[in-house]
Predict the 3D structure of the following.
Amino acid sequence: MEDKKINEMESIELIAEMIRKTKKEASMKQDYNAFLLYGYAAVLISIVAWVGIQLTGQQLFMAVWFAMFLPYIWTLLRSRQTKQEVTTYLGEMLGHIWKIIGSMFVLTVLVILVVGFAVGRIDFSLMMPLSLIYAGIGTSMTGLVIKEKWFVWTPLVGLLTAVYMLADGVCDNSWNILFGFSFLIFMVMPAHIVRSKIQ
């Protein structure tokens, strides 16, 4: 395949377009929609799980947490539909961060299943604290890349909640509310604050 040579004017225009695209990506409201989608999904699912367990006493309602994969599937399908003409370093970096975080979620589920089948008991209770840690790391890294302190520091709430869950070791119904509250603090709240800044 032959490389196309561009003249000075086209080169300057391409550089200017890349700069405009980077600035736009750093300030677009749409960039924070994923945080709102996952954040509100976690809050809603936490309430559904908590109410279900409170009313029935059945821990089976914890299975509704698998619905958290629905926003992931939706964003994955949507990203394949929308093709960008120009990919910036910023967009590429954020994409890689969340691919790694998504892979951590999937691999954790697979390891829990494999180990569970091997020992004869599948226990997904570790997913809650680990999910808080993974999502918190991804959110903080995003905040560092886009230079937005609200995304950098609020995930500490999720980390402290995860440490509490791991130290307590007993997965009870309160974990549902703690999980939803953590996502409200480190995903939903920062996304709304940052969106309000760029209105």
